[in-house]
Specification:
The chain is an all-alpha fold and about 70 residues long. The chain has one domain. It contains four helices and no strands. Helix 1 (about 1-10) runs antiparallel to helix 4. The protein starts with a helix and ends with a helix. The relative contact order is 0.13. The model has no long low-confidence stretch (mean pLDDT about 85).
Amino acid sequence: MASGLLTFARHDMLEMYHLMGYPEAQIEQIQKSGLLIGNRMTWLMAFSVLPFLGYLLFIKKILRRKS
Protein backbone atom coordinates (compact mmCIF):
# COMPACT_ATOMS: atom_id res chain seq x y z
CA MET A 1 0.00 0.00 0.00
CA ALA A 2 2.79 2.41 0.84
CA SER A 3 4.45 1.83 -2.51
CA GLY A 4 1.19 2.41 -4.35
CA LEU A 5 0.46 5.58 -2.43
CA LEU A 6 3.91 6.98 -3.14
CA THR A 7 3.73 6.04 -6.81
CA PHE A 8 0.31 7.55 -7.39
CA ALA A 9 1.20 10.66 -5.40
CA ARG A 10 4.05 11.36 -7.81
CA HIS A 11 2.69 10.07 -11.12
CA ASP A 12 -0.68 10.35 -12.81
CA MET A 13 -2.34 7.13 -14.02
CA LEU A 14 -2.66 8.52 -17.54
CA GLU A 15 1.09 9.18 -17.57
CA MET A 16 1.68 5.57 -16.57
CA TYR A 17 -0.60 4.31 -19.33
CA HIS A 18 1.36 6.39 -21.86
CA LEU A 19 4.63 4.89 -20.63
CA MET A 20 3.19 1.36 -20.80
CA GLY A 21 2.39 1.89 -24.48
CA TYR A 22 -1.40 1.91 -24.36
CA PRO A 23 -3.04 3.12 -27.58
CA GLU A 24 -4.02 6.78 -27.57
CA ALA A 25 -7.69 5.93 -28.24
CA GLN A 26 -7.81 3.78 -25.13
CA ILE A 27 -6.16 6.47 -23.01
CA GLU A 28 -8.73 8.99 -24.26
CA GLN A 29 -11.56 6.68 -23.15
CA ILE A 30 -9.99 6.36 -19.70
CA GLN A 31 -9.60 10.14 -19.55
CA LYS A 32 -13.26 10.67 -20.47
CA SER A 33 -14.38 8.48 -17.55
CA GLY A 34 -12.67 10.91 -15.15
CA LEU A 35 -12.02 8.19 -12.57
CA LEU A 36 -8.23 8.01 -12.81
CA ILE A 37 -7.43 11.67 -13.45
CA GLY A 38 -5.29 13.69 -11.07
CA ASN A 39 -4.82 12.42 -7.55
CA ARG A 40 -8.02 10.37 -7.39
CA MET A 41 -6.09 7.11 -7.42
CA THR A 42 -4.09 8.27 -4.39
CA TRP A 43 -7.29 8.98 -2.48
CA LEU A 44 -8.83 5.69 -3.57
CA MET A 45 -5.84 3.76 -2.26
CA ALA A 46 -5.73 5.78 0.96
CA PHE A 47 -9.38 5.02 1.71
CA SER A 48 -9.12 1.38 0.69
CA VAL A 49 -6.39 0.75 3.25
CA LEU A 50 -8.73 1.68 6.13
CA PRO A 51 -11.07 -1.34 5.83
CA PHE A 52 -8.04 -3.59 5.30
CA LEU A 53 -6.39 -2.41 8.53
CA GLY A 54 -9.70 -2.79 10.37
CA TYR A 55 -9.95 -6.37 9.12
CA LEU A 56 -6.42 -7.13 10.34
CA LEU A 57 -7.24 -5.78 13.79
CA PHE A 58 -10.43 -7.86 13.89
CA ILE A 59 -8.58 -11.03 12.91
CA LYS A 60 -5.88 -10.33 15.49
CA LYS A 61 -8.51 -10.36 18.26
CA ILE A 62 -10.00 -13.63 17.04
CA LEU A 63 -6.64 -15.36 16.69
CA ARG A 64 -5.55 -14.34 20.17
CA ARG A 65 -8.70 -15.89 21.70
CA LYS A 66 -8.10 -19.25 20.01
CA SER A 67 -4.48 -19.66 21.11
